[in-house]
Amino acid sequence: MVRPDGTVLHEERHPTLAARGPEAVTENILEIAAGLAARAENPIAVGIAVPGVIDEENGVAVWSSNVGFRDVPLRKLLTDRLGLPAALGHDVRVGGLAEARLGAGRGQRYVLFVAIGTGIAAALVVDGKTYGGAHGAAGELGHIVVRPGGTPCPCGARGCLEAVTSARSIGRRYAEISGNPEATAFDVVGRLDQDPAARQVWQEAVDALADGLLTAQALYDVDVLVLGGGLAEAGEALLEPLRGELEKRLTFHRMPRIVKAELGDTAGCKGAALLALDHLEKA
């Protein structure tokens, strides 16, 4: 439960349990939302964010591999269950919305939020508004090809940024070099001071990320670039070399400020609330 100023009044966490199937997940979401609405003194709107391809205008989760959604009219289902106006958004875009308005990008007009975890995605926020694209698929920064003919990506291409720099890809690359099949990106960060192989994998990832962000800055020319997701928890071990590598690559483009996200894993919830409030203003 979130006030219009972004203050969180009450918070709950529930397992998704996606293996139960999309219908069960949807019903669980509706039950949790109804429970939160019942706790509120005067609920005015509800916001929800999900991963995948989202039709925000019509409130439909078009496709989400994580939870099995395909053409699920979540906004209508929420409004029918709760009797409240509802808004549906993409998880990374609403996270970017929250970081731009309430977090590390506040006070700036042009913000690019980049979430780096098991995958990589971005959200462009201009004057506090996100851009979803013609088909709800804008911001797939992880699928810019930075290493043509390189590592296969689950999307079907080769050499995508996500196939080199996501936490999953860093862990897999280090496992190949170190011979430890259980290795993770967390292990790489923890061994940078003592293991040349860890430093090699990390530098490869930073170089690829700088290449991807060079393209992003050429396209968007933002004031500040906010890095979130699990990999950003590496802090300056990531940010310092990344700033240096991006600056080396820039020619006439302006260097953006590169900062770590401030809101952590609450950004999505806060962003969903902001989206719901924006939806009210439009209505």
TrEMBL record:
Protein name, UniProt field: Sugar kinase
An example molecular function term from Gene Ontology annotations: kinase activity
Highest taxon above the source species: Bacteria
UniProt keyword annotations, A-Z: Kinase, Transferase
InterPro entries: ATPase_NBD, ROK
Similarity comment text for this entry: Belongs to the ROK (NagC/XylR) family.
